[in-house]
Amino acid sequence: MITAELQETLLTFQRNEITEYHIYRKLAAETRDPDNSKVLRDIADDELRHYRDWQKHTGQEVAPSRFRIWWHYLICRLFGLTFGIKLMERGEEGAQASYESLRETIPEVDAIVRDENDHENALIDLLDEERLRYIGSIVLGLNDALVELTGALAGLTFALQNTRLVALTGLITGIAAALSMGASEYLSTKTEDRDKCPVKASVYTGLTYVLTVALLILPYLVFEDLALCLGSTLGLAVIIIAAFNYYVAVAKDLSFKGRFLEMTGLSFAVAAVSFLIGLGLRAFLSVDV
Asked: Which residue pairs from 229-237 have beta carbons closer than 8 angstroms and sit at least 24 positions apart in sequence?
């Protein structure tokens, strides 16, 4: 017997399945790799079959969520197929838990859960994006920029006592370091990793470094108060660390909390030491800018 409450639950599941069918079909049409496209189409067909299984019990047609189709498609385009799909699959884990409570009422539940698990395994085998193959190079550029520049800016802030001078010095230091890091990554990749292109690895490292430097220096170009500039820079560092680690945690199924705390702690420790060094050197050398 299907109660009114159960009917609403099944209609929600039904809407999710037809929505995900359209998402996977849209992604399959946009994916250039033919193998990836085929797997996405196969998963879409499974989602459509699940939709029809729920429809047998609800007796209703359900329209997909156009917003969710647009939203997940946009995420995949902006952040990559791997991140977008893994994020969507995380939502399906909650649905699978809800399915368990329906086992006695709906006999198809076991088959649906089995298919959902197969989706996840198929996706792990499917997803091979360039940005994830070069994630080590991105981490290198991001981590070095955060650690080195937050420390340098903290030291420069109290050594120079001038926002424009801090921004100029930090920008010169950051660009020079980005070029150095890019060259080092090129040589390292060329020597140790035959599976990656050394030029691409160096570009990923250098570009990530420069973009991080630009964001961290931005407060010194906008504000005049030194304390506000340094506080804003440290706040931006935390946001960058959190956003990047969340991306990696979702795309590569890694722990977010541990990596976030480690990178944040390291960046702030270096910034604190550099602040003290800058303050001490300014007093020791009697510099008055």
From this structure: 229/157, 229/163, 229/166, 230/153, 230/154, 230/157, 233/150, 233/153, 234/150, 234/268, 234/271, 237/146, 237/150, 237/264, 237/267, 237/268
Task: Look at residue 98 and give its three-state secondary structure.
Answer: helix
Task: Compute the distance between CA of residue 243 and CA of residue 113 in angstroms, rounded to an integer.
Answer: 31
Tokens of 178: 């980005």
Q: Put residue 137 in one of left, alpha, beta given phi > 0 → left and psi -120 to 50 → alpha.
A: alpha
- In angstroms, the CA 202 to CA 189 distance is 8
- 8-state DSSP, 286: T
Tokens of residue 164, six digits: 């424009």
pLDDT in tens, 65-112: 999 999 999 998 888 888 888 888 776 655 655 666 666 667 667 676
Measure the N-to-C terminal CA separation of the chain; round to a whole number of Å: 81
The pTM score is 0.72
Please write the tens of the pLDDT for every residue from 250-287. 877 778 888 888 878 877 787 777 667 766 766 666 65
Residue with tokens 């939203």, as numbered in its chain = 71
Return d(Cα 29, Cα 41) in angstroms, integer.
9
